[in-house]
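User: Hey, my collaborator sent me this sequence without any context and asked if I could get a structure. I don't really work with proteins. Can you help?
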Amino acid sequence: SDHCAKVVSRDGFSRLTVDGREVPAIIYKGITPHRKEEGNLYFGAKMDRAGIHLQAIPIRFGDSPQKAGFWSAKGFDAKGAAEEIRRVMRLAPNSLFLLSMSTDAYPEFSDEHPDEVWCDADGRKVWGGNVHADHSTDPGAKRKNQWPWMSYHSLVWREAVKRNVSALVEELRAQGLAKRVVGVHIAGYHDGQFATILPDYSKPAVEGFRAWQKREYGCVKWETAPVFEVKPFFTPGKDDREIAFTRFLKTAPMDMQNDIA
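Assistant: No problem. I've predicted the 3D structure and written it out in structure-token form, which is a compact way to encode the shape of the chain:
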């Protein structure tokens, strides 16, 4: 890319910079016009004319019954995603862009990698759609609107996402579109957010908890993850394993983002 956006700390405050120059922290992010029914909800052209020249383009990976995406069981459509980005760039010719890549997997990915799915302490899969998640004992009834979510700790999922990100970046470079991209935002699948709203006891999570302990303490203090009732306060010295596991779960999204980046 010919440009770079960064968040830096100056005088104790976070500042947004583009190419080293401080800019107003105003970014337009709207629904992109690749679906006809959503085309009238994109206001990037108006924002561009109004002087808002930093925009975020949401690129959804997982193609699902709820939302159209560029990643399905057939593979990742890098050319299709690049064409979506080109279309938006044409509508806002004066703007630079941040790519907000929503890393959700297509629903069938969980069937292909069942051991990588987010689970509760009883081994039930965590099912969700575009926003909400819950535990399901009747998955067949929810298949049209919900599907098993992948564990944040799944290295299989992370590596697949990395390949998709790399493929899209290379396609943008090949088409000469990367020069207007200032950065990549790795987004989650809770409507673009990352959230550890339910504990994760999947195999990748338990293995990740041990690896986290080695980094944090230099050794593995606990081989298994604790099963406990969420409460407002923990007692150091009494609830150390619960405290450690909670810290591990809450920092999982950041760990995943750093891994992909």
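In plain terms: The longest helix spans residues 155-174. You can pass these tokens on to your collaborator as they are.
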